[in-house]
Write a structure and sequence with these properties.
6 helices; alpha/beta; 7-stranded mixed beta sheet; 7 strands; about 30% helix; single chain
């Protein structure tokens, strides 16, 4: 019997990336609480949220392969999530300017009562950014739906001096590792 895949994400970028793993999948937006205690260690936040997202969908789809994901940008122990507005996006990009930050994606896979989760980290170094570069980017690309206020796949690519790690993780889904973890879970669950 063929495995039925569900991506528990409303992100269009994740939809595009998941299609590298399988073209045959359903998208269901997760419905879960994303508020965590303030003392939660920043690097563990994406994986905790990914587990919540996947589990919220898996409870009504226990026999399908459900994948949840969450991505954040971290600099100096501070999480840069999606900006509240353009002023917040400007502040975030100004803080990231000329520095190296870490993109952390947490991923959770649920299948036949089994759960497997992991985090993937990628370091991204930005060139120093001018005021006009930041303002023009925000005006043209409207990055309010992106962690850290930029997209590596759009004009944000012009900010990047270097990447150490998985490029697709910066887009929001570490597809090479995810494929391997899915294969591992299928084996554990007996097919």
């Amino acid at each position: 019997m063929a495995i039925k895949y569900i991506l528990a994400s409303s992100s269009p970028r994740r939809h595009e990336l998941f299609a590298f793993i399988t073209k045959d999948f359903e998208v269901i937006s997760p419905d879960c609480d994303e508020v965590l205690p303030k003392e939660t260690e920043p690097y563990s936040v994406p994986e905790i949220l990914a587990v919540r997202k996947a589990m919220s969908v898996a409870k009504t789809h226990p026999d399908e392969m459900v994948v949840g994901c969450d991505t954040v940008v971290i600099l100096d122990g501070v999480i840069f999530g999606k900006p509240k507005d353009e002023a917040n996006a400007y502040d975030m990009l100004g803080t990231l300017s000329g520095r190296t930050h870490t993109v952390v994606s947490g991923v959770c896979i649920c299948y036949k009562g089994r759960t497997l989760s992991f985090s993937q980290e990628t370091d991204v170094e930005f060139y120093p950014l001018s005021d006009s570069e930041i303002r023009n980017y925000i005006t043209e690309f409207k990055p309010l739906d992106k962690a850290g206020s930029y997209g590596v796949q759009d004009g944000g690519a012009l900010f990047i001096k270097g990447i150490r790690g998985d490029y697709y993780n910066v887009m929001g889904l570490p597809i090479a590792r995810l494929k391997r973890e899915i294969d591992k879970l299928i084996t554990l669950a007996g097919g």
